[in-house]
Amino acid sequence: MIQIDDVVVTLDVLREKFICDLGVCKGACCIEGDAGAPVEKEEVAKLEEVLPIIWDDLADNAKEIINEQGVVYVDEEGDIVTSIVNGKDCVFTCYDEKGFCYCAIEKAYRAGKTDFYKPVSCHLYPIRVSNFGKYKAVNYHRWEICKAAVLLGEKEGVPVYKFLEKPLIRKFGQAWFDELEIAVDELKKAGYIKE
Q1: 187 vs 86: CA distance, rounded Å
Q2: For burial by CB atoms within 10 Å, which of 115, 136, 163, 194 has the most?
Q3: Which of the 8 DSSP states describes residue 72?
Q4: pLDDT at residue 33 in the model
Q5: Mapping DSSP to helix (H, G, I), strand (E, B) and coil, where does residue 77 land?
């Protein structure tokens, strides 16, 4: 592990390879799992603000859930997460004509309809950030549905942290990411990370 400011990063984030392969997984991370995506407190208002913009893209059963319980709920672990449909699907999912799952919020962002990209936890996936007192832990989450992303990352030689450069900067800032890259270079020189 390495520490930059109050953030501890596991070496897997720096060593393991990953590039999302939407053509294979079809966005399964938005519709699989046992809870919604983690949401930061300040993001709840953003989710509610973007809701009228994306409403028509949402499935009818997602609209029902949102009308009943809102855009988020508190899961069994006490975390704020996006509301889900059928016990697994994020309410913010939408589908294209090929059956690929997309985030309706990200779709609206890319169309210039909102300045909110999507919850940062979604943007960071497969990185998960956990809070431990005054420290944040940055971990690589392995999931079978992302096997194709691992294979593509290995083929292209792209480590998790490089694939997720923009969301890491969004979460921790440019200066923090610059420090991370310096640390990676030092770890490579010391032989802890292979090219």
Answers
A1: 44
A2: 163
A3: E
A4: 66
A5: coil
- pLDDT band with cut points at 50, 70 and 90 for residue 14: very high
**CB-based contact 58:103 (threshold 8 Å):** no
- Give residue-wise pLDDT tens across range 128-169: 998 888 999 999 988 887 888 889 999 999 999 999 999 999
| Residues forming a β-bridge with 115 | none
Is the alpha carbon torsion for 164, 142, 79, 66 positive or negative? positive
Give Cα separations from 91 to 55, 72, 111, 182 (angstroms): 10, 9, 20, 39
Q: How far apart are CA 139 and CA 92, in angstroms?
A: 25
Which of 37, 145, 141, 129 is closest to 84 using CA atoms?
Answer: 37
Does residue 34 surpass a pLDDT of 80? no
Q: Is the dihedral of CA 122, 127, 131, 134 positive or negative?
A: negative
Token pair, residue 94, equals: 């939408």
> Hey, how many other C-beta atoms are within 10 angstroms of the C-beta on 164?
24
